[in-house]
Design goal:
Layout lengths: L4 E3 L2 E4 L3 H12 L4 E5 L13 E3 L3 H10 L4 H8 E7 L9 E6 L1 H14 L3 E5 L2 E9 L2 E9 L4 E3 L3 E3 L8 E4 L2 E4 L10 H8 L5 E7 L2 E3 L9 E3 L22 E5 L2 H9 L5 H4 L13 H7 L7 E6 L6 E5 L7 H7 L11 E3 L2 E7 L17 E3 L9 H19 L13 H12 L23 H12 L4 H23 L1 E2 L2 E2 H5 L6 H7 L8 H12 L1 H18 L17 H10 L4 H4 L7 H15 L19
Parallel strand pairs: 1-10, 2-3, 2-11, 3-7, 11-22
Antiparallel strand pairs: 4-6, 5-6, 8-9, 9-10, 12-13, 12-21, 14-21, 15-19, 15-20, 16-17, 17-18, 18-19, 23-24
Helix pairs in contact: 1-10, 2-10, 2-12, 3-4, 12-13, 13-16
Length: 626
């Protein structure tokens, strides 16, 4: 360090869910890493819902954990209610979710970051990006922070959340900031625009928080957690923290009438906000307008921790004026006397359309500049964490001159997420759903370690403890399958007998005593492997078909304009996305099978060897020349 210049292999900007995973992943690979944040007191903070997981999101958390990430262990250590969603459906739909002790979660993540080798956590406000130009090539050189100090690195990961030129709205009132009580980040937006990075605007929102002591819990429905809570992390044995109940109440016609009467004061309807918000997490104003035939909407009263009275009201995100929020809650059963501790608000912020990125989340136009989290147009802690881990991993690999690694669509929900973002982009805040994954029977929440931990071990992302834990699980599965194959029940092999839908593992244990020694986690995997073998085999055949298309690689700088019969729209979209394979190309919105056929024909024509003229000497097959 000389003259306020600091040198690193990787710099991560922003210490939310994407930033902490990115910095931790890079540091685990041995890269000298700096994590820069405006405020050390908000590292890993839950800006909105105090919960982790949910439908498809829970699968992502399990994948992050299987790759050695922080989120699974953090929620296991600080969760106050655990539930496995969709239990009545098949295993591909099972999704873990947990309420968090909000402050405890944040403190856990911060401590892990502070304790990580090769990682420096610094309170700094980044004001500019330093880019080095060499002819037509541009690469990142580092960042400049408030006060003039420079952090130099060939790899920088931007995880700025909702803070880029952010504006908060509560009724007619507007305040600069990306989260209540915090400011905005304008310098990075200006730097990105100056560098020619496309920027757009999105909107998100948060509901009011109430004081628990003012809620009438006798008038609302209790929602307990699972009797036998399931952890997120594959390293967690038992969950020991005291579980707290959530509660449910409903809006009604009076609430809806109050909202309709004040729509002209709601920023989303007054013209004050024009940005697109998340379709699947609409504000209460949106719900009342879009679902005018509904008499009520469900609200979840979710405690924010053991050491606070704050209650998050899930389902009533709003940017209505304060006086309307004050009038709204006395009309809701159980909340007649509830006191608002924090008012709801909406946030508008800049994001960078993700089609400007390669699948490993590096900019196509600036080498070494990576993007992860809400800056890519996503919504949710889990989607941010998955992107952060991949961006941090690949930034560290680039620092060591290694090829990037990205999970494919058949390997992980994270792979689906990345491919959707960089191939199709998003015109609204992107949220993961199980329906987005065509191979969801392969991508279950229970087998994330079997899919990803061996890869994580090769990449150097995981500890020896995790590797040993995984090896033990696999040996248990192998032992159980051997026992089942050699045992016979009613003249039928044990594994064949277990294939029957009505037969349970407990019944098998009653008949085959050796199975009682198998761990519950391994037993569950055996049951799913056997009962769904036929379906899984069919999905794997589909994967093989798609892989054949994926092997048809397209050169990075392929000129689509040379294919004269190709439609203008196809040329434009293929040039913008620059797909790496025909498999990716066919998923671009608006690209037809006919377009793909033309590209394939052109690629094959380019790779054909020139015909040998009759009588001419044939080329020497042993020659090393092309």
């Amino acid at each position: 360090m000389t003259d306020n210049i600091y040198h690193y292999d990787v710099i991560v900007i922003g210490a939310g869910h994407a930033g902490t995973e990115a910095a931790a992943a890079a540091a685990r690979l041995g890269a000298k890493t700096a994590l820069l944040t405006n405020n050390l007191d908000t590292v890993g903070q839950m800006s909105c819902n105090p919960a982790i997981g949910g439908v498809a999101k829970g699968q992502i958390v399990r994948e992050v954990d299987a790759l050695g990430g922080l989120m699974g262990q953090a929620i296991d250590a600080t969760g106050i209610q655990f539930r496995l969603l969709n239990r009545r459906k098949g295993p591909a739909m099972h999704s873990p979710r947990a309420q968090a002790d909000k402050k405890a979660y944040q403190n856990y993540v911060k401590y892990q970051i502070e304790s990580q080798d090769h990682l420096d956590l610094r309170q700094e406000s980044v004001e500019d990006l330093m880019v080095i130009e060499n002819g037509t090539e541009r690469r990142i050189g580092g960042v400049r922070v408030r006060g003039g100090a420079e952090y130099r690195a060939d790899n920088v990961v931007l995880t700025t959340g909702t803070f880029l030129q952010a504006i908060m709205h509560t009724g007619e009132a507007k305040t600069a900031g990306g989260r209540a009580g915090e400011g905005t980040t304008a310098g990075i937006s200006g730097a990105l625009q100056r560098l020619g990075i496309e920027i757009d605007r999105f909107k998100t929102g948060t509901p009011p928080r109430l004081n628990a002591k003012t809620i009438d819990y006798q008038s609302v429905e209790e929602q307990p957690g699972d009797d036998q809570p399931q952890p997120f992390s594959y390293l967690t044995g038992e969950l020991s923290l005291e579980q707290l109940p959530c509660h449910i109440t409903y809006t009604n016609a009076q609430v809806h009438e109050l909202i309709r009467a004040n729509l002209d004061r709601a920023p989303m309807y007054s013209g004050q906000i024009n940005s697109r918000g998340p379709r699947y997490c609409p504000s209460i104003e949106d719900k009342v307008v879009r679902f005018a035939d509904k008499d009520g909407h469900q609200l979840f009263l979710e405690p924010e921790g053991h050491q606070t009275q704050e209650v998050y009201v899930n389902g009533i995100s709003t940017s209505l004026p304060r006086d309307v929020q004050d009038k709204m809650f006395p009309l809701i059963p159980g909340l007649e006397n509830a006191t608002i501790m924090r008012y709801g608000y909406a946030v508008e912020y800049d994001f960078c359309p993700p089609t400007q990125l390669w699948s490993h989340l590096e900019s196509k136009s600036i080498h070494g500049l990576f993007f992860a989290g809400q800056i890519n147009g996503t919504t949710g802690y889990e989607e941010a964490a998955g992107q952060g881990l991949i961006a941090g991993l690949n930034a560290a690999r680039k620092a060591n001159d290694l090829d990037p690694w990205v999970p494919t669509r058949d390997q992980a929900y994270i792979g689906v997420l990345l491919d959707d973002l960089v191939t199709a982009g998003t015109d609204e805040p992107y949220r993961m759903f199980t329906s987005r994954a065509e191979y969801r029977l392969l991508l279950r929440q229970d087998n994330a370690d079997r899919r990803l931990t061996p890869i994580a071990n090769e990449l150097g992302l995981i500890t020896e403890q995790r590797n040993l834990r995984f090896a033990h699980k696999m040996s248990q599965i192998e032992l159980a399958m051997k026992i089942l194959k050699k045992s016979r029940i009613d003249q039928t092999a044990g594994d064949t007998y277990l294939r029957r839908p009505e037969v349970t593992w407990d019944e098998m244990c009653a008949s085959i005593a050796e199975l009682r020694e198998i761990d519950a986690e391994a037993a569950q995997q055996c049951v799913y492997d056997i009962k769904y073998e036929g379906y899984v085999t069919r999905q794997k055949m589909e994967v093989e078909k798609q892989q054949r298309l994926a092997t048809k690689r397209i050169p990075t700088h392929f000129d689509y304009h040379q294919i004269k019969p190709l439609r203008s729209e196809a040329k434009e979209k293929l040039t913008r996305v620059r797909p790496k394979s025909l498999d990716q190309a066919k998923r671009i919105s608006g690209i037809t099978p006919a377009d793909i056929a033309l590209v394939l024909a052109h690629l094959e024509q380019k790779t054909k060897k020139p015909a040998v003229t009759p009588g001419a000497e044939s080329p020497d097959p042993s020659s090393s020349h092309p």
